[in-house]
Amino acid sequence: MDFSGTKLICLVGRRLVTLRRDCDPSIPWPGYWDLPGGGRDGDESPEACVLRETAEEVGLTLTPNDLIWRRFYPRPVAAWFFAARLPESAAADLSLGDEGQALALVDPAEWVLREDVIPHFRMRVAFAMEELHDL
């Protein structure tokens, strides 16, 4: 299946890993809170893409076994969303990469209500949290 990129709903303990995008007006949603992830390189798989982007953006080295949930969204851009649940101790491994202004751990229920979150990601995170509740 063709896709442009990936995003990760990464829970560290009970908190969501989120990044504030750069304020560059040439990028979509400048200054908004985002999720780790990004564009596909070459013909990499969705899993390889999200694992690479997560390591680059927030310093977490995950494995395919860490990915406990996945959904494909064809619009507005064809993208795979994944979820991972890590222990609270993983917070010590977080580090902001070369992109973004800030890295934060926040309550997912509060994150989805924020006005400065990429709008279509709010519903995707809320949906994932509902499904993850049973896992």
UniProtKB/TrEMBL annotation:
Keywords: Hydrolase. GO terms for molecular function: hydrolase activity. The keyword Hydrolase applies. PROSITE patterns: NUDIX (PS51462), NUDIX_BOX (PS00893). InterPro entries: NUDIX_hydrolase-like_dom_sf, NUDIX_hydrolase_CS, NUDIX_hydrolase_dom. Residues 1-131 form the Nudix hydrolase domain. The keyword Endoplasmic reticulum does not apply. Its cofactor is Mg(2+). PANTHER family: GDP-MANNOSE MANNOSYL HYDROLASE (PTHR43046), MUTT_NUDIX FAMILY PROTEIN (PTHR43046:SF14). This is NUDIX domain-containing protein. It comes from Maritimibacter harenae. The lineage of its organism: Bacteria, Pseudomonadati, Pseudomonadota, Alphaproteobacteria, Rhodobacterales.
